[in-house]
Design brief:
Elements lengths: L1 E2 L3 E7 L8 H9 L2 E6 L16 E4 L12 H9 L1 H5 L4 E4 L1 H9 L4 E3 L6 E6 L1 E2 L1 H5 L8 E6 L1 E3 L6 E5 L6 E6 L3 E4 L7 H10 L12 H27 L23 E2 L16
Parallel strand pairs: 2-3, 2-4, 4-5, 5-13
Antiparallel strand pairs: 1-3, 6-10, 6-14, 7-9, 8-11, 11-12, 12-13
C-alpha cells in the first residue's frame, strides 16, 4: 500500500497485518515523505531496486531471526543487499536490525529460556552515537525482543548494555543504521503490545506492565527528540559517520549460553528475525 504525500516514497517493511510504523511513520509524513508499505510475510514483493525510493525502514515482528523454515524471511534478508549496494539510507528496528546483522555475516542468538528485554532498559551510547545528529542519543529505550546479535564485521557500535544483550545499536557504511530497540512506539502501542503480548511479560528479564507505562512518561521525551532530529539527518545522508573498528572488543560478542543459526557470508542472507 502506497500512501503518497509529495517526495520519493520511503519503503516501510512491516511483518504483521496489524503492524504500523508508529511515530516513525508520522514523522516521515511530516517531512513530506510518501510511505510505501509492504508486508513480505503476507506475500508483498520487495522492489528489485530502490531507484524510485528515498530510503527503506525494516521494522520488527514476532518471528525469530533464525526462522530458516520461512522462505520470505530468507528472501527479505537477501534483499537487504539492494539498499546496501545502492547506498540508500537503511534503518533496521529490532527484527530489522537482526536481519541486517545476519545479512552482514554476524550471528543472531536466542537463549533456551527465552530470556528477554521487554520494557524500558538503560543503554550506554558511544561518542559517535551522540554525534549522529543534533540531539543526544537516548539513554533509556523501549525493547521487545528475546533475540540479540553480534556486531557485524565492519560495523560501528553505537550503543551497548551490560548483560545478555550487549549490542544495542550499530551503523554500517554511510547510511545504514540498526537499533535493537523500538523508537517508533507510542503510548497507545505500548498499551496494545502489553495487552496482546501479556504472556511474554513473564519471561526472564521482562519488566512488569506498570513499568512499561510509567517508563513512557519518564523516558519517551528524550527518545522523541532524538528521533525527530535523527530521521531527517538519516534521510538526507547527513548523519555523522565514524571509522569502522579493526576488530570488535569482547563485549560486542554474543554472551555464553545462546543458540544461533550458522553464520552467513555477506550477501547470502539466510533467515533472521526477532520477537517484538
Amino acid at each position: 500500500m502506497l500512501e503518497r504525500d509529495g517526495r520519493d516514497p520511503v519503503l516501510i517493511v512491516l511483518h504483521q497485518d496489524h503492524s504500523t510504523p508508529g511515530r516513525v511513520g508520522a514523522l516521515l509524513k511530516r517531512l513530506g515523505c510518501a510511505l510505501d508499505i509492504r508486508r513480505p510475510s503476507l506475500g508483498d514483493p520487495l522492489p528489485a531496486t530502490l531507484s524510485d525510493h528515498a530510503a527503506a525502514i525494516v521494522f520488527g515482528g514476532p518471528m525469530s531471526a533464525n526462522d530458516d523454515h520461512l522462505d520470505w524471511v530468507k528472501r527479505e534478508i537477501d534483499w537487504l543487499a539492494v539498499p546496501l549496494k545502492e547506498d540508500k539510507p537503511l534503518f533496521g528496528v529490532c527484527l530489522g536490525a537482526q536481519m541486517l546483522a545476519r545479512h552482514l555475516g554476524a550471528q543472531v542468538f536466542t537463549f533456551p529460556d527465552k530470556r528477554s528485554e521487554i520494557g524500558y532498559y538503560p543503554v550506554a551510547p558511544t561518542a559517535e552515537a551522540d554525534r549522529l545528529c543534533a540531539a543526544p542519543f537516548p539513554r533509556s529505550v523501549y525493547h521487545w525482543h528475546c533475540d540479540g546479535f553480534e556486531l557485524p564485521r565492519g560495523a560501528r557500535l553505537l550503543a551497548r548494555r551490560e548483560g545478555d544483550f550487549p549490542n544495542q545499536a550499530f551503523a554500517f557504511g554511510k547510511s545504514a543504521l540498526a537499533l535493537q530497540f523500538h523508537p517508533e512506539v507510542t503510548y497507545a502501542m505500548i498499551c496494545r503490545w502489553t495487552t496482546r503480548g501479556a504472556e511474554r511479560l513473564g519471561r526472564p528479564g521482562a519488566r512488569p506492565r506498570p513499568e512499561h507505562l510509567e517508563g513512557w512518561f519518564r523516558y519517551d521525551r528524550a527518545v522523541a527528540l532524538w528521533l525527530a532530529a535523527m530521521l531527517p539527518a538519516w534521510l538526507n545522508g547527513a548523519l555523522v559517520a565514524g571509522e569502522a573498528p579493526a576488530s570488535p572488543p569482547p563485549l560486542e560478542r554474543a554472551p555464553r549460553g545462546w543458540r544461533s543459526a550458522p553464520t552467513l557470508e555477506v550477501g547470502t542472507g539466510l533467515a533472521a528475525a526477532s520477537p517484538s
